UniProtKB/TrEMBL annotation:
Cofactor: heme
Protein name as it appears in the record: Flavonoid 3'-monooxygenase
Family statement drawn from the similarity comment of this UniProt entry: Belongs to the cytochrome P450 family.
Keyword Oxidoreductase: yes
UniProt xrefs under InterPro entries: Cyt_P450, Cyt_P450_E_grp-I, Cyt_P450_sf
GO MF assignments: metal ion binding; monooxygenase activity
Lineage of source species: Eukaryota, Viridiplantae, Streptophyta, Embryophyta, Tracheophyta
Membrane topology term: Single-pass membrane protein
Organism (species): Abeliophyllum distichum
Keyword line: Heme, Iron, Metal-binding, Monooxygenase, Oxidoreductase
């Protein structure tokens, strides 16, 4: 479907066949991003992976993620953090389930607890420490509370998904008619203060360690790479902040949302709970916790997660893609500068996906 957003052409791909054309067959043509205000003001002037235009910087950042930060070896080295936070999470849920108000059980807001669990795990792996306090009293080594950091991340997701009139009608951009750009600039200042605090702490530790310095978390890896003179594109402080922000934002909202939707679906279908419980009893038993290496032995539970992601994808529309040159797609000419939106929500509900006619 072709649309016109102000001055710019926009294509919406709502079928598996068209999504394959844009994301696989002609992926290099549509690998870039449009230059939207969100990328400029919330992502360090397009220096994160989400909004970086396709080119040498994007390719280098992708390589750093795949080989240095998200490699199997490095993720395995953080397993103890995930285990510890998972057990803390379950202990909190159990304690909350025992609370009484006027003789009745008190409701537990699952999303709130899932977000806390996810944020605690990710910040420890990415930053090496939580860097936030869990109450307004504050703790040494923190400049922000858990609720404040979660609010910043929620606002980041919101502002990165809005339709800003100035992006599509450039001559109106100076008016900031919806007030989004002002909100983005305010959010940038708050995030940058937090990032500066984290980086200053890490740099101080690097200096004190001297030649004996060994990276312990993902920010350490980025700072060490920033000093590498052999990189094709030198990493600046803003580059490190942008990539660090991707790791935080991209991991803290997705997992809680998926788990919450999974519970929402299986509670409506008791027979699925029975089958999942039977698989857990058969494969794991009731004498130990489920560990990460057990997941490959639980195909039914894996299928539940995949079905949840089909019904409730992490975003209705994938982040916009941008044509860097003219391209022929299925017999149609797509001109340079066209923005492409892939509707994964619609694709997941196509009858052919389920083998239906």
């Amino acid at each position: 479907m072709q649309l016109k957003f102000g001055s710019y052409p926009v294509l919406v791909a709502s079928s598996p066949e068209m999504a394959k054309q844009f994301l696989k067959i002609h992926d290099t043509v549509f690998a870039s991003r449009p230059a939207l205000a969100a990328g400029k003001y919330t992502s360090y002037n397009y220096l994160d992976m989400t909004w970086a235009p396709y080119g040498s910087y994007w390719r280098q950042a992708r390589k750093i993620y795949l080989t240095e930060i998200l490699s199997s070896k490095r993720l395995d080295s953080y397993e103890h953090i995930r285990v510890e936070e998972r057990r803390n999470f379950l202990s909190r849920l159990y304690a909350l389930s025992k609370l009484q108000v006027n003789g009745c059980g008190k409701p537990v807001l699952l999303r709130e607890q899932l977000s806390r669990f996810s944020l605690s795990s990710i910040t420890r792996m990415v930053l090496g420490n939580k860097y936030f306090s869990e109450s307004k009293c504050g703790l040494e080594g923190s400049i922000i509370t858990l609720d404040e950091l979660q609010e910043l991340l929620d606002q980041w997701f919101l502002l990165n998904g809005v339709i800003n009139i100035g992006d599509w009608i450039p001559w109106l951009s100076f008016l900031d008619m919806q007030g989004y750009v002002k909100q983005m600039k305010d959010l940038y200042k708050k995030f940058d203060r937090f990032h500066e605090y984290v980086l200053d702490d890490h740099k101080a530790k690097m200096v004190s360690s001297g030649e004996d310095f060994v990276p312990k978390d993902m920010v350490d890896v980025l700072l060490q790479l920033a000093e590498d003179p052999n990189l094709e594109v030198q990493l600046t402080t803003d580059s490190v902040k942008g990539l660090m922000q991707d790791l935080l934002a991209g991991s803290t909202d997705t997992s809680p949302a998926t788990v919450e939707w999974t519970f929402h679906e299986i509670i409506r279908k008791p027979h699925i709970i029975e089958k999942a419980t039977e698989e857990l009893d058969r494969v794991i038993g009731r004498e130990r916790w489920v560990e990460e290496n057990d997941l490959s032995k639980l195909p039914y539970i894996e299928a539940i997660i995949k079905e949840t992601l089909r019904l409730h994808p992490l975003c209705t529309l994938l982040p916009p893609h941008f044509a860097i040159e003219d391209c022929n797609v299925s017999g149609y000419t797509v001109s340079k500068g066209t923005t492409v939106l892939v509707n994964v929500w619609s694709i997941g509900r196509k009858p052919q996906i389920l083998g239906c006619t």
